[in-house]
Amino acid sequence: MPNDKDFAIIVGINDYQELPTLSGPIADANTFKEWLLSPDGGDMPEDNCKLVDAGKNPFIPTQDLVDEKLNEIIAGGGKYRRLYFFFAGHGIGLDWNSNGLCLPGWTSSFRNKSLSSKAYLDYTVGSDNFKEVFFFLDCCRDRLINAIALPPTLGLPRPRGQGVKSLVLFASDFEELSGEAPDEDMASTVRGYFSQALVAGLKGAAADQYGNITATKLVSFTQQKTAELAKAAQQTQTVTPEFYGPGITMDQLIIRQGVAPKLTSVTFNFPTGGRILFSDSDLQPIFNKTFAPGDSEGPLDLDKGLYELLDQDTRRSFMFKIDGTQNAASYEF
After folding, report:
1. CA 178, CA 72: separation in Å to the nearest integer?
2. Whether 174 and 278 share a structural domain
3. Domain count within the chain
4. Which pLDDT score, from 0 to 100, does residue 146 have?
């Protein structure tokens, strides 16, 4: 059954009048939309998923285009389950809990042409149309003086919703940059570190032992995976969450229920052979075999976790981690 009480505003901007051109945001926006529409993902009807068009000639979107999409949802006046607000592009750090989401017309002269993440969060929560509001913001947060981000141009019909749960994930810490790099699974496509980690987590890499994706698990996985992707490029990036949930903890906020953790197909090659013991993180043996030089084993479908290969004659060992994001992997021991 589709989640017809869920809605989304998705913005990805590559091209700016003055700021450097980015490679990842539009791909990130489309990938997030694909997850939202997938029956195994957000399971959302396509009409509920509002992707804001972005382009270079003319430079769009403007704030009006974003607000028109938001108004299409709010004007319905219903009581909905959830709103996703996804933004990928350039950003400005305004405060520890607020970002300016730069529009294409942003320049050093017109430095107020950005959307206030806090004002849009306050508006969507305050509309009282949604029980849950999620903001996922893949943009930089380096501070810029004399810049004021814009609130929605829509009027607020109701006071702040009581009991509305909200989760904001900033791609980086305040005054920190966000990066992008070729996708791990599709090197020809560049995507943000944060967006790669976020979508991988939503697809199941952040699922707990029961297959549920809680806010706690999603935040933890996205932080860890983003940091790993940034470190591989000799950069630092720290995902920062902001949670508001009256009467509940992040452990109790379930973003996706019953998602089977993603398995990785792993093959092992043994150039020198030996008596090999392969164990999981609980020290439970997966195989204990003698291999001739040049033998291989697998593919084996492995859940995320730590694993160890041990040569029982030489006591040589090798530990590796499966993080739940790869389809396949190969190791030589």
Report:
1. 31
2. no
3. 2
4. 76
